[in-house]
Every structure is written in C-alpha cells, then in structure tokens.
Specification:
Blueprint (H helix, E strand, L loop, with lengths): L6 E5 L11 H15 L3 E7 L4 H5 L2 E11 L2 E10 L7 E6 L15 H18 L6 E5 L6 H7 L11 E5 L28 E2 L2 E2 L1 H8 L2 E4 L2 H6 L8 H6 L4 E3 L26 H16 L7 E8 L8 H9 L7 E8 L1 H13 L4 E5 L3 H10 L2 E4 L9 H7 L3 E5 L2 H6 L11 E3 L4 H15 L2 H13 L4 H16 L1
Parallel strand pairs: 1-2, 1-6, 2-5, 6-7, 7-10, 10-11, 12-13, 12-15, 13-14, 15-16, 16-17
Antiparallel strand pairs: 3-4, 4-5, 8-9
C-alpha cells in the first residue's frame, strides 16, 4: 500500500542493551528507535547471544529452518522480542554451534560465525517472503549481505531491494582466505572480484562495492577513509560518489543527567555546578580522590586507535609534576601492557589516580557526571560518542582533532568554541591541552558558562535520523 511506512531492516553484530562492545551497540540501540518514532517501520536483526537481556525478556519463535554452510548442515531459528521493549522490532538469529554464544567477538571461527548469521538471515526472509524497502548493513560483520542478495540465485527475490552500508570503523574488515569461499551459498562466479581485495575476501570491501549507498559516521571520517582505511583507501576514493557522512547522535533519554537512574545525584543546566559537585564528591569518595581538585577522565578501550598507549606517559607527566594539581579517573580495558601500566600508576599515585580496569556501564555514567574534563587522544575516531556524552553532562571534552571529534568539538580559541582540541596524537600535545584545560578550570565564570553551553548543544539522533530518512527516500523512489 502506498501509505504504508517504509520498512527498514538494520543488521548488526551489536545493539544496546542486548549486546554492546563499543559505539556500534549504542548506535543500533538508538537510531532505529528514532526512525521508528519518525514513522518508519524499523527492525534490528542481530545474532542471538546468551546474555542477561535475552534471559530476562520474553521472545517468540517466528521462524525455524535449515541450510548448508559448505558441507555443514545448520539449523536456524529466529526469535522476536514480544513487547518491542527497545522501541523497535528486535529479531535474534540463533544457529546452534555458531550463533548462540555469550560474547559477540573473540572466537577462532568468527568468519564462519558471521557468515552463518548473514546466510541464516537471508534464508529466513526469503523463506518467509519478507521484502523490506531497505536493508541497512552495519560494518563488516554484515558486509556480505548486498553481494549475496544481488548475485546468488537463492536470494533472487531480494535483488531489487536497495541496501545501505555504514562504516563505523574501517580498520576492521573481516578478512578471509579464499578457501572460505566454499562456505558461501552458490553465487555468480563471474562476480568474484566484488568479494576480493588484495587477494583475500574482504567483507567490508564487498559491502562498499555492492551496496546502493554507504555512509560513514561523520563527514570528517568519510574524508579520512580515502587517506587511512587499512588498505581500502583506493576503494573508498573510487566509490566516494555514493558515500555520505552522517554524524552519529546520542539517545538523550538514556544520556540525561536530569533523570539518569545510574547517577547518585540528578541535575540539569540550571544547577549544573552544584549537581556536578555532588556527583564528583560521590565518585572521589569511592576512589580516594580529592573533590576540590579538577577531575580529568578517560573512558574507553585501551587500544592504539584510541591513543590509549599514550595514556600512561600522559599520566606520569602530569602527576609526576609537583606544580600540577589535579586528579585523574580511568575506566577501560584492552591492551595488557596499558592495563598493567595504569594499575601500577594507580598504586604509585594514590589519592591522585583512580582506575577501574574493565567496563561498567553505571560507572561510565557516574564519571561523565563527576568529571570536569574528558580526555580523548584518539589516533582514529570515526565519530566518537564519548565526547557527546560528556557534553550532555556538562563535562568539557579534550580531543585530538580527527574524524568525528573534529566535526563535533570546536576549540575554545575559536569563535563559539566550547572544547579543547590538539593536533597530534603525541604525549606532549595532550599534556599541553591538559594545561590549557587547567587554565580554563580556574577561570570560574567562563568554566560555568561553557558547562551550561555544552549541555544545551543538540547532538540527539533527531537531526541525524532525518538525514537517514532522506537517504532511504532517495534510494527507494
């Protein structure tokens, strides 16, 4: 019917709060909800994970079937969350032995795992005669979908469905040796080049080649992919005409200091000073820090692309200087060497450095509410959400000017600036930025103005969702 809303299916390995490892999970937990609220019929389809959300919500089985992955027979079941708790249709694909695990990543047969997820999804919607208006694929875990839709006879019924591919992180591409090709459903072998890049099967490359349009999660990152994409630079340059940059947003119902259930004290723009002070006192008491000092924070993975390897030297440089008076709070995990260094520094500087090695959602919210500044020395940051969360909580971001950080943070030295930026992912540059932040902190009037200003900035999904809707409209006319 012409008046029916467009049906959009999002495919992803993550979706908060079902399973989240990074920003991908946050995006898939928020964007579909905003699209649904705007009038689209929106589903998220993801792997089934044996995690608390699945165990605590009621699901109904909507499909059961079987297929072969190479010579291996597989059973597939699809479950729908009955109450649409997340604000959109949530469907989980379960394949015993491959897509029925506790964690999204980290398995030796990850290629087979996500290949089975994609194959099982297409098998289901083909058998069930589900023909959406758009299939939206997120990152390499779903990158084979457009190729399989357009070049496998088994899925010919989907040949005219447009596809969108979103690059959340182009550093990870899902590379597979060509000996894995036997696991794919039969396809037009004349089209093998669409799967290939540098003599391996590259799912992210296949996504960019085969999708109708692709997006990057910020305009800055779209431009950077041509210069730095872990070997796919030439492909992104060739396909640039069908790319568009749409900066991620944040879910302002989840990230709202006035009603965040994870905070000990709520606050809004009008009482940001007193509200942040109470949250700071609560956090500092838990970690033995001094709430009278400025509090700098790092939240994120200990990974090279995040600049986390710089963190120990940055901390040592600052806390080892007797003339510098501040506290630092770190929440993160990843590189074992960085983890060990942070743990060592926390013992070396008690009362100055608080650290939690791991990840805890509640603690991240409390740090955003308590901190005065958030440090992001990223080498690569496609969009970045942490800086958006921090500003929502009146915390000033200190970021390396790259990708989405450059798109969303304007330096205080510029007209209408509200954050602190630095050019290079070097220890010296980050330390200098922290010293600039300390000067700002001691300018009480300006600091208060900036806190209120960043809390009022609109980084919600409302504007970004409109851009996605426009994109869907353009490819379905």
């Amino acid at each position: 019917m012409p008046n029916e809303p467009k049906h959009i299916i999002h495919l992803s390995a993550e979706c908060y709060p079902v399973a989240k490892v990074g920003g991908l999970g946050d995006v898939l937990g928020a964007l579909p909800k905003y699209l649904q609220q705007a009038g689209l019929r929106t589903w998220v389809v993801m792997p089934w994970y044996n995690r608390p959300f699945v165990q605590s919500h009621e699901f109904e089985r909507v499909y059961a079937g079987n297929f072969h992955q190479g010579s291996r027979p597989l059973e597939v079941e699809v479950y729908r969350e009955k109450e649409d708790t997340l604000g959109f249709g949530l469907y989980l694909v379960k394949i015993p032995g491959l897509v029925d695990r506790e964690e999204p990543y980290g398995y030796t047969d990850e290629s087979e795992q996500f290949m089975a997820f994609q194959h099982g999804f297409l098998h289901w919607i083909t058998e069930a005669d589900i023909v959406p208006d758009v299939i939206h694929c997120h990152d390499h875990h779903t990158g084979l979908i457009p190729f399989l839709m357009y070049h496998c006879d088994r899925f010919a019924g989907l040949k005219n469905v447009p596809t969108v591919g979103t690059v959340h992180n182009g550093q990870y591409q899902g590379w597979m040796d060509w000996n894995k090709a036997i696991l794919l459903p039969p396809f037009d072998t004349w089209k093998w080049g669409l799967l290939d890049w540098d003599r391996v099967i590259n799912p992210l490359g296949a996504l960019i080649k085969c999708c109708t349009r692709f997006t990057a999660v910020s305009t800055g990152y779209l431009d950077e992919l041509i210069l730095q994409a872990n070997g796919l630079e030439r492909l992104f340059a060739m396909e640039r005409a069908k790319g568009v940059g749409i900066v991620n947003g944040i879910d302002t119902t989840v990230w709202n200091p006035a009603q965040d259930t994870m905070l000990p004290h709520h606050y809004r723009v009008s009482n940001v000073q007193s509200g942040k002070r109470k949250n700071k006192e609560f956090l500092c008491d838990a970690y033995g820090l001094d709430p009278q000092k400025p509090l700098f924070a790092y939240i994120g993975r200990f990974a090279g692309e995040k600049g986390a390897d710089l963190l120990p030297d940055i901390i040592e440089n600052l806390l080892g200087d007797a003339t510098v008076d501040l506290n630092i709070m770190v929440l993160g995990s990843g590189d074992p060497q960085v983890q060990a260094s942070i743990a060592y520094l926390a013992e070396k500087y008690p009362g100055k450095l608080g650290a939690y090695i791991g990840y805890q959602e509640e603690l991240s919210h409390r740090i955003y509410a308590a901190a005065d500044f958030l440090l992001m020395p990223s080498r690569v940051e496609p969009c970045g959400l942490n800086q958006l969360y921090s500003m929502r909580y009146g915390t000033i971001p200190i970021v390396r000017s790259t990708g989405g950080l450059r798109d969303t943070v304007i330096d205080i030295a510029e007209q209408k600036g509200y954050g602190i930026t630095f050019l290079n992912a070097y220890v010296a540059d980050a330390v200098e930025a922290v010293h600039r932040a300390l000067s700002l902190y001691h300018d009480k009037q300006r600091m208060q103005q900036l806190r209120k200003h960043v809390m009022k900035l609109d980084f919600s999904w409302d504007k970004s969702a409109i851009k996605y809707m426009e994109l869907y409209q353009n490819i379905t006319q």
